[in-house]
Structure formats: structure tokens, C-alpha cells
Design goal:
CATH architecture of the largest domain: Orthogonal Bundle
Largest sheet: 2 strands, antiparallel
Helix content: 55-70%
Number of domains: 3
Number of strands: 2
Shape: globular
Mean pLDDT: 76
CATH topology of the largest domain: hpI Integrase, Chain A
CATH superfamily of the largest domain: Intergrase catalytic core
Order of helices and strands: HHHHHHHEEHHHHHH
Strand content: under 5%
CATH class of the largest domain: Mainly Alpha
Low-confidence stretches: 1-6, 236-266, 287-297
């Protein structure tokens, strides 16, 4: 992805500014590229992702001539991202078919990563950071402890599918090594290989008539959607007042409890909010609703 983003950028600037050396890229080229992407109808998320890829590639150059400006320093205003506008979840059939593709390719590492995202809600970088010690602890405790975005540590329960796949992957991995990253390969490359695998097969496994994007991160959305539905179902069956709902994650957030109970219609924005709050709950209370705070009585 980084490579192709930079190729698109460099090709466009070579045509417009007769840019011949990569080292000569500067702020004016970034500004022109942003304007071109906005005129082409690219989303704010796509534009910012491309800019991040270009900066990463630029940082790896040995002798760049100019420093690249930040997004705030550009001579053009970037639009704000809009969240919750698309359904990114996977269906169970799509997920099963993608697992079949990974099994046929003998990619048991991909299978474990897919399970971790689908049934534990892990981000792709969180999956590939797991080492053998973390995996062994997860099998002992039936829950995996992960340092996620912003350095936040959370503990998430693991199910039987994750347990089986993780145990098999441990058998193939020497102790003290990354569980999903070969010794001769950088982590970014292994992540990219999984993303390319999904891109290669998603048209074959996508449900008929579906226009969902089917990216790896969509499995995290699927996990959040499933938990959201479970909480709604459990609260509706209880026939009790909202304030008496016994679910610990809902009790941790009274405002969330009210929102979920009063919003039977599932929507992506609510799922995004719920996912963030669920992570906060797991961070504070652990997977079983018991507070992990050192100040808890």
C-alpha cells in the first residue's frame, strides 16, 4: 500500500512538475497532490492515509533535499474525516470462505490473525506484535493481554477457535520469537502480505450483491457488532429497568447503557462508539468485570 501510494504520487508530480529525483519532493508537491485527490473525489480518510504513506517512504530516504510539511502546515485545508458512514462488517459466510482460502494456501498464521480479529477484536498490528510468551500466557488464562493504540493495555477473552489456532502456531514457532512474523521478515511486510491476501480473494468470497469493502479491520467491526447485539438481547430479555441491567460493561457506563437500550436499530456510528467504550471497560475492569485498578477495594 505504501509503495503504490508513493508511485501514484510520484507519477502525478513527475508529469506536472517534471520531477525527476525522489529526493527533490517538497511541500508544493504534496499540496498539488492533495488538490488533485480532492478534485478526484477521494475521501478525507484516503487522502490522509496516502499522505502518511508518502511521509513514511520519504523518511526512509538517505538524503532527502527538503523536509515534508505536516498536514497542518500544508497550503491547503484538509477535510475532516467522517465516521460511521459505511458497513464494514463481514458475514459469517464470507469469513468462513476466507478461512478456507487461507487453509488451502497452508497459511495457518493468517488463520490465527483472522480469528483474533473476528473473535477478540484485535487490530492487525496487535495480532502481529504477539510473541510466544504472550501466546503461552493467553492459553493459560483463556484471555490475551495486548498493548494497543496509544499504549493502552487491555485483556480480552479468547474462544476455542483462537485457542486451537494459537496452540498450533506455537508448535511451529521457536520460543522467544514473534508468533506471526518470520525472523527474516519485517513486521510491516508480513502485515502487508495478509492485506494483499485478503484483497486477492475478497471478490471471490464476498456475498452476492454486497458492496462491503471487506478489509481486515472490518473483522473488528464484526466483533463489535456481535457484542453490541448480545448486550441488547440480554437487556431486552431481562425485562428490568435500564438501571438494573446486570451486564458489567453496561454498568460501567450508565450513559452507554441508556443509549444501547433505547437504540434497537443497529448502525455503524453506534458500533464505533460502543467499540471504543468496550475497550475502555476491558482496560479498567478486565474480561470478567472485575476491576484491575490498583485502587479498587
Amino acid at each position: 500500500m505504501i509503495y503504490w501510494s508513493y508511485c501514484d504520487f510520484y507519477g502525478d508530480q513527475a508529469d506536472e512538475f517534471r520531477l525527476q529525483k525522489l529526493e527533490n519532493v517538497s511541500g508544493k508537491h504534496l499540496t498539488a497532490y492533495v488538490l488533485w485527490m480532492q478534485e478526484s473525489g477521494k475521501s478525507p480518510s484516503t487522502i490522509k492515509t496516502d499522505l502518511a504513506a508518502i511521509r513514511l517512504f520519504h523518511d526512509k530516504m538517505s538524503r532527502p533535499k527538503y523536509p515534508l510539511p505536516t498536514n497542518d502546515e500544508l497550503s491547503v485545508e484538509l477535510e475532516r474525516r467522517c465516521f460511521g458512514g459505511a458497513d464494514r462488517t463481514w458475514s459469517n459466510v464470507e469469513f468462513s470462505k476466507m478461512l478456507g482460502k487461507a487453509l488451502a494456501a497452508d497459511r495457518y498464521d493468517f488463520i490465527l490473525a483472522l480469528y483474533l480479529a473476528r473473535y477478540a477484536g484485535l487490530r492487525i498490528h496487535e495480532c502481529f506484535r504477539i510473541d510466544t510468551a504472550t501466546a503461552e500466557q493467553a492459553l493459560r488464562e483463556n484471555a490475551i493481554t495486548i498493548k494497543g493504540k496509544g499504549g493502552k493495555v487491555r485483556t480480552v477473552p479468547i474462544n476455542e477457535q483462537i485457542t486451537i489456532a494459537m496452540r498450533k502456531q506455537l508448535e511451529r514457532t521457536p520460543r522467544g520469537h514473534k508468533l506471526l512474523v518470520p525472523d527474516d521478515m519485517h513486521m510491516d511486510r508480513t502485515i502487508n502480505l495478509l492485506q494483499l491476501f485478503i484483497m486477492k480473494h475478497r471478490d471471490e468470497v464476498r456475498d452476492v450483491g454486497s458492496d462491503r469493502p471487506m478489509a481486515f479491520h472490518g473483522l473488528r467491526h464484526t466483533f463489535a457488532a456481535e457484542k453490541y447485539k448480545e448486550l441488547i438481547s440480554s437487556s431486552m430479555r431481562s425485562h428490568t429497568a435500564v438501571s438494573d441491567i446486570p451486564n458489567p460493561s453496561m454498568n460501567a457506563f450508565p450513559h452507554m447503557r441508556k443509549q444501547i437500550y433505547a437504540s434497537p436499530k443497529l448502525n455503524t456510528r453506534s458500533l464505533s462508539v460502543f467499540s471504543n467504550r468496550l475497550n475502555l471497560f476491558l482496560l479498567q475492569f478486565g474480561p470478567h468485570g472485575r476491576s484491575t485498578s490498583p485502587w479498587a477495594s
